[in-house]
Design a protein that fits this description.
With 327 residues, the chain is of the alpha/beta class. The chain folds into two domains: 2-206, 3-Layer(aba) Sandwich (Rossmann fold), CATH 3.40.50.880; 219-320, Arc Repressor Mutant, subunit A. The chain contains 14 helices and ten strands. An eight-stranded mixed sheet has the order 3-4-2-1-5-6-10-9, with helices on both faces. It has a two-stranded parallel ribbon with strand order 7-8. It is globular. The relative contact order is 0.09.
Length: 327
């Protein structure tokens, strides 16, 4: 199996070397554990488009860093780029964009990590497809590529011969997923155990930090947001909030959703859930105490809304991310 990893300027270094290390570990450890050679030996190249358009050697790894070669790859991995350099990469790496199209036309599979999806989208190959990317940049991606369906609540999306994953450091789980696709379930499990990589399939919003959406010009709605954020533990109603800002219920809901992307009720729930997450992470309070502190009198409803937003129930979240979970 031949794998290419793009090594363009402004690529996140760990998203270049990390996948190579995982695939190399798989190639080296499975024969040792099974006493059987790999059915399909793995070879990895780094691909970089430089001005000289020539072959180069990677200085430290000894793996060949190739430009413009005739090799057809089974899998091409597009690493994440530095967030501040998205524009530079998508406008400056046109040779790599063309090369990705050529490889795909020759039946190479393509896999992007995090916001590497922006470079992959420049090929036009994502039109009409479902993809995921870093949740923080999902809206920007939608603006740039409106004909691509972004599902930013997903960690990994498999479209048959195009794969995408969410956050940059999800590449560990992503590589295990791809190893299973190419080599099988048992091989993937062995590698995940040897490298101690979690093979979770939780949605991306399980790991996301709620960003309070105040990047808009509706001053009254900003005031309403601030009021909600300071008073989420109290009983708040649409009628009370709308009346506070001299609006009808319908007008308040319309303006709030237009400015923030959430209805007032959704926003209140997200603020409360984020507060609950912090308490679950940092306090020794019981689930019931935390629910009450966050404005929930019905503990069952709290558990239900928490799991809907986080994909874990409060107890599972506390065990995974709380003080005791790190001991």
């Amino acid at each position: 199996m031949r794998i290419a990893i793009l090594n363009y300027e402004h690529a996140v270094a760990t998203c270049v070397t990390g996948p190579a290390e995982i695939w190399s570990a798989m190639a080296n450890t499975i024969p040792l554990l099974t006493n059987t050679p790999l059915k399909n030996p793995v070879a990895i190249d780094y691909i970089r488009a430089d001005k000289k358009k020539s072959f180069r050697k990677a200085l430290e790894t000894g793996l060949e860093e190739v430009l413009g070669n005739e090799q057809v790859y089974d899998l091409v991995i597009v690493p994440a780029m530095r967030a501040a350099k998205i524009d530079d990469v998508v406008t400056g790496e046109r040779q790599l964009v063309d090369w990705l199209n050529q490889q795909h036309a020759k039946n190479a599979d393509l896999a992007s990590i995090c916001i590497g999806a922006f470079l992959l989208a420049e090929t036009g190959l994502l039109k009409g497809k479902k993809v995921t990317t870093n949740i923080r940049f999902a809206d920007l991606f939608r603006q740039r590529y409106p004909d691509v369906e972004v599902q930013d609540d997903k960690i990994i999306i498999d479209q048959g011969n195009i794969y995408t994953c969410g956050g940059a450091f999800v590449f560990t789980t992503f590589m295990i997923y791809l190893i299973e696709k190419y080599f099988g379930h048992q091989e993937a499990i062995m590698v995940s155990k040897v490298l101690m990589i979690n093979t979770h399939q939780l949605p991306q919003h399980t790991f996301s930090v709620f960003q309070l959406q105040r990047n808009h010009s509706d001053e009254k709605i900003v005031e309403a947001q601030l009021f909600i954020e300071k008073n989420y533990e109290h009983s708040l109603s649409i009628e009370g909030l709308a009346g506070r800002y001299y609006m009808s219920n319908r007008n308040f809901i319309r303006r709030f959703e237009g400015a923030t992307g959430n209805t007032p009720l959704e926003y209140l729930q997200r603020v409360r859930i984020e507060a609950a997450k912090k308490l679950l992470e940092n306090s020794n309070d019981s689930i019931e105490q935390i629910a009450v502190k966050c404005g929930y009198e019905d503990i069952g409803f709290f558990r239900k809304i928490f799991k809907r937003n986080v994909a874990l129930n409060p107890k599972e979240y506390q065990k995974k991310y709380g003080k005791t979970g790190w001991g």
